[in-house]
Structures are given as C-alpha cells and as structure tokens.
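Thought: the user asked what Class I SAM-dependent methyltransferase looks like in 3D. I have the sequence; next I should run the structure tool and report back without guessing.
Action: structure_tool
Action Input:
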Amino acid sequence: MKEFIDLQYQSPKGLVGFYFGEKMVLQHQPETIWTIDLLKLRKEERVLEIGCGAGYAMKTILTQPAVKLVVGLDLSKSMLRSAKLRNRSAVRKGTANLLLGNVSNIPLGNDSFTKVFSIHSIYFWDINPQTISEIYRVLKPNGTVTITLCNGKNGETWTGVQNMIEGQLIPSMIQLGFNEVKIVKGPDSRGFHTIAVLGEK
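Observation:
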C-alpha cells in the first residue's frame, strides 16, 4: 500500500490520481503561497513550474498582472488534465501552457524563462549535473530558480534529504554556474519543515 501511495504522489494516475492531486493542492497551500512570494514576480515574467501537479500554483501566479506566460511541466497525464481544467481560461488565452515531460530533458528552448520553480517534486528527480543543467539551460540570464521541499518534521531533520541538498543539489548548482545559491527557511506546514533552495543564472 505504501508503495502504491508513493507512486501516486510521484505520478498520479486515473481517478485515484485525481484525488491525490486535489489532496496535494490542499496540503501544500501554505508553502505554495510562500514560494510564489519568493519569486518576486515583476513585469513580463515567463515562468516554468516543474512538477505542476493539478495547477494550483499556476492559477495563483496567473492572477498577477506582471506575468506574461506560465508553463507547467509534469510526468502525469492525469495531473496535466487537472491543471488544464483549473487553468482553462488562461490556456485559451495563451498565457498558460501544459507539457508532459521530465526535468532531466525539458522539452523547451534555451533562455526561455525568467523564473523556474518547483514545489515538492525534487524528491522524485534524479539529482545530477544533467538535471540541473537543464534548469540552467531554459533560464534567461539573470533568471532565478526556486526549489521548495521539506527537510524534516516536528523538529527532526531528515538526514537523507539534507545530505541530498548539501552533497548533490547545491554543489551541482554551483558547478554549473548558478550564483547566490542559498537555503531559506519557510513555514512549517502540518509539522513539516519547509525550505527552499534558490539560485540565479
């Protein structure tokens, strides 16, 4: 059962996947709002969300007049259908687009976005220079990446996640040329410790 639930969180499928997608929308609202604040959206922003899920963050971002385009990338066809439904007006207007794809091979052009972000999707990435280089590639010069995740719960730090951040993610970002790489602490949500890793191209 745990394996089934983990797979649904990674790549929701069918009606059960729809349920998990909407559940994640409700669970992750505090860190979603916090992450969007971190983006510091300005005029003519072009934003990519990696692991867009059911499209709640996209819809929230699209309410801001500074945003020109938001693209959502996800592995799950079920989640993309939910995100398209949630953002159907923006999709019709051309200010939102949804793509099936993987962070290790982002199907988008170089220097396309001023902001790239993800919320609770990094746990399912293959963290290596290729993955991080794809994020770097699609960012415009001076564009920023914001990767939000949890690194513990109820006062306990998860050493596996912390080791991934300090031993793989941040070194890869610095190696590939990201500047101002740092960790910022966010709100605790349901006891989980929220942090974000930030970097600038």
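Thought: the tool returned a structure. Summarizing for the user.
Final Answer: Structure for Class I SAM-dependent methyltransferase predicted. Residues 31 and 187 are 7 Å apart (CA to CA). The chain has eight helices and eight strands.
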